[in-house]
Amino acid sequence: MNLPKTYQPDQYEPNIYGLWETSNSFRPSGVGEPYSIILPPPNANGNLHIGHGLTVALQDTLVRWQRMKGKDTLYLPGADHAGFETWVVYEKELQKQGKSRFDFSREQLYSKVWDFVDKQRGNMELQLRALGASLSWEHMVFTLDEKVVQTTYNTFKQLWDKGLIYRGEKMVNYCTTHQTGFADIEINHKNEKSKLWKIAYPSLDKVTEIIVATTRPETMLGDVAVAVHPDDERYKHLIGTTVQLPLADREIPVIADEYVDPNFGTGAVKITPAHDPNDFEIGERHNLPRIQVIGFDGKMTNVPSQFAGLEVLDARKRILAALEAADFRRGEETLENSIAHCYKCNTIIQPLVKDQWFLKTQPLAKRVIDIINSGEVKFYPESRTKALLYYLENLRDWNLSRQIAWGIPIPAFQNTADANDWVFDTRVDQKSIEIDGKVYRREEDTFDTWFSSGQWPFITTDFLDGGELSRFYPSNVMETGHDILYPWVSRMLMLGLEVTDKLPFKDVYLHGLVNDAHGKKMSKSKGNVINPMDMVSKYGSDAFRMGIMASRSAGQDQAFSEAKVIAGRNFCNKLWNTARFIESKLLDMYKSSEPTPISLADHWIIRELNNSIKSIDELLSQYRFAEAAEVVYHSLWDNLADWYIESSKAELNHDVLVWALDVTLRISHPFAPFVTETIWQTLPWYNEQLIIADWPTHVNFDEISASQFDRLKNFITEVRFVANELPGNEKYDLLYGNDSLISENLELVKHLVGFYIKSIDHTDQPRGLRIASEGREVWFDIDKNTLNDHQSNLEVRLSKEHFRAKSLRKRLENSSYIEKAPPQLVEESQKELREITERINKLQEELKVIDSSN
RNA sequence: GGGUGAUUAGCUCAUUUGGCUAGAGCGCCUCAUUGACGUUGAGGAGGUGAGAGGUUCGAAUCCUCUAUCGCCCACCA
Fold it and tell me: Which nucleotides of B are covered by protein (CB under 7 A)?
């Protein structure tokens, strides 16, 4: 074996991934308890972003760990057609070509976007491979695959039959740039300073006037009433009368409605049912007509010619000017209110009345609320549960209709002779169909993408058909960013329960957003986006995974730290060189077997690795990834490399050395799959791949021997510390007295502190500086002058020890502490105090020697 | 307007039922070294845990208030 000095990831990663993939190692084994994670499908048309990097690191770590633990494991890949997201990109393409969506039919558009996406599809999949995701590729599902479409239709039908689907003219959030409606959740509210304009609406006899306050004067041309609070003394006498609507030649009634807050504005509200959700409701209550004055293109319509065709904000200016000119303005004030914007293009969302398909969400939400309250689904972090409950409790009906072609067509047809007669039918490729001699025209809208992706877990596992993968539903954990808790996780819970009567997953782990190095949100416009693939090619896939996982806790947004990726890279290299060293020590075709510990170090490393295995199991089962990764890191670096390998240079035990490498590779594999498998493939005695090897188990050792090694470690650290502190650059002899731990491990001690000392010898006449390590009879053979020079160091140490002893003594003298603290804690304190006292005595001894010599 | 998270070492962050001397990575300082690894080794410095008060034998952790920053939700014209 002749491995290069440093690990070069790019030389091995593609081959190793190829090896796994071609030998079907990602495929569920069919043996053992099922364990599944469904990858939140990345946009088929895009590249992976840093958040995907984190997602893959977390999910793949769990999957690999469980696979090694013998589970029948499925990590299920998918690709998202990402309806609106992709549509926006594609429309820009069309624009470049000087075309628009109105130049094509739905079918034409759909097939054009399909081709557009198809060209890009491979990228995201290659990137998932580069990240080492052990996905079962043969089970890949695209969100427009036939089975997704069919299940979506069936679900729609089922909900329709249950009376949960309805079509209705309702106020929808409409983006006039993208010309589509949105769900409530897809719009961004921003608090902005705006003006509250006051406008006089004169009575018919011009004797009096009522002043309304509005932030959107352009909608006044669609006013159909003025509303006041029924008990408002200022306006009571006007209720039932009629006023003149300025600029428009119309008369509108003054009505009373409880909704009006007499303390806001002027206490009189203009009512525009076509352009405001509250006004819409008031309009319904009072049977008012709806006059649409803003078109779906965002331009004024049904208004006097001077305003017709104007953009909304333009119209606002012109209307205010016209009101001013005609003396209808009665002042203005500024206020902060919240304005809805399109989350994509930032256009102000217009509330417009439109016929759309809605899903009654409350019955579905209710079930989810109950099941969350019953504790059947667990959230990490738990704090998100409360927010989700609040969201669900206040959820309004879900607008499923989108006016874009890139999506699953809504399978519904309308009777051309009876607008209220809608039928469910999946012949969506036909513009019209005939049923019982009646002609039905198809719905042109498509579904909100989240409606189908909300069914993802049971669709992808073919649960409803009882297919081969149905044993993997529900999945074990839904791991995703907290930013899609509402749009996705909540919908999967609702639809999963509704359709399958089961929770779609057992746990929900929500990771935080990965921000830039300074904790700021990454965005293209800020130019601070970090591409995960850049990190992978610079430092390797394993390094990236370990780096992005480090120091991260559930749900917490956090800065990306390249330094942690570097630490990950260093880890891989350390592992590489550990393996290089161990392999160099091996006899030909050495066969690994149960280790037979001989030396203290052997027992100790077995104990330490046993502990590491246990901790990793515990931490990962609680989704404490960063802590688990830290255990792996220190297990390799501190325990195996710094102590055990160093010790093995003095006392070589092939058995244990090989076993230690073996276990280290196994426990590191879920975190750093490539480098561990690469090394594994160089070990001559394994035929199987590490990815499907068994998770290591506990091995017997002798606790007393292990703790003897702990003492030796302490002693060695103490010697190194003191040697560093001693004045001058000279090396000194070390003398040991009646100390069996030292005498029996002399070669080991020599190797571990060899550099710091001249020699180590037995003595019957101790002299010099005593090592202040528990139980040791060892001295640095230094003369009085050197000891003298060292005095201040000793005094500093002594005072520190005294300080610590004092606080321990104080604690132990407190009777409440003795009574109430756990006995084990008290015992530890007592033990510690004894040790400190011993150190103090030794230090004082030294200082006494110094004193007496002066 | 309503929630919610954060504030810990120079930087980025851990610390899960309150309990070892509050940890890690990177950075910093000293020293070392040609064969496992400089993507190294040994040692070290660095924190009154935002501020104030409270509960407790014991608080970064629980409670109250204050300050600053962030995020989410939200149909008050």
Answer: 1, 3-6, 11-16, 19-21, 23-26, 30-32, 36-44, 56-58, 70-77
**The nucleotide closest to A337 (CA, C1' atoms):** B76
Question: Around Cβ A69, how many Cβ atoms within 10 Å?
Answer: 16
CA proximity to A647, closest of A592, A584, A603 = A603
Q: Nearest nucleotide, C1' to the C-alpha of A171?
A: B75
pLDDT tens readout for residues A302-332: 999 999 999 999 999 999 999 999 999 999 9
The pLDDT, as a whole number, for residue A854 is 58
pLDDT band, very low/low/confident/very high, at A541 (cuts 50, 70, 90): very high
Give me the mean pLDDT over the A247-276 stretch: 92
Task: Compute, in degrees rounded to 10, the torsion defined by CA atoms A828, A834, A835, A838.
Answer: 180
Q: Hey, what's the torsion of the CAs at A89, A95, A97, A102, to 10 degrees?
A: 100
Computed on alpha carbons and rounded to an integer, the radius of gyration of chain A in Å comes to 37
DSSP A484: G
Task: Identify the pLDDT of residue A597.
Answer: 94
Average pLDDT of the segment spanning A695-723: 93
| Amino acid identity for residue A810 in this structure | K
Contact A351, A343 (CB under 8 A): no
CA of A819 to C1' of B54 (A): 24
- Window A28-87, strand B contacts by Cβ < 7 Å: none
Q: Any idea which nucleotide's C1' is nearest the CA of A340?
A: B75
What are the pLDDT digits (tens) for A573-604? 999 999 999 988 876 656 666 889 999 999 99
Query: Residues with Cβ < 8 Å from A90, sequence gap 6 or more?
Result: A112, A113, A116, A406
A75: left (phi over 0), alpha (psi -120 to 50) or beta: beta
Mean residue pLDDT of chain A comes to 93
* Confidence band, pLDDT 50/70/90 cuts, at residue A687: confident
Instruction: State the nucleotide closest to A637 in CA–C1' terms.
Output: B37
Token pair in block for residue A425: 């039918």
Label the pairing between strands A732-736 and A778-781. antiparallel
What phi and psi, each to the nearest 5 degrees, are found at residue A319?
Answer: -70, -40
Tell me the residue length of chain A. 854
Other Cβ atoms closer than 10 A to A209 = 17
Tens of pLDDT along A138-187? 999 999 999 999 999 999 999 999 999 999 999 999 999 999 999 999 99
Q: Which residue is nearest to nucleotide B57 (CA to C1')?
A: A817
Instruction: Take residue A125 and report the two structure tokens written for it.
Output: 């999949």
Q: How far apart are CA A65 and CA A671, in angstroms?
A: 9
Give the global pTM.
0.94
Q: Is the CB of A343 under 7 A from strand B?
A: no
Output the distance from A805 CA to B30 C1' rounded to whole Å: 29
Residues 788-807 of A with CB under 7 A from strand B: 804
**A363 is near strand B: CB distance < 7 Å:** no
- Of the ranges A351-365, A578-592, A614-628, which one carries the lowest mean pLDDT score? A578-592
A519 touches strand B (CB under 7 A): yes
CB A269 under 7 Å to nucleic chain B: yes
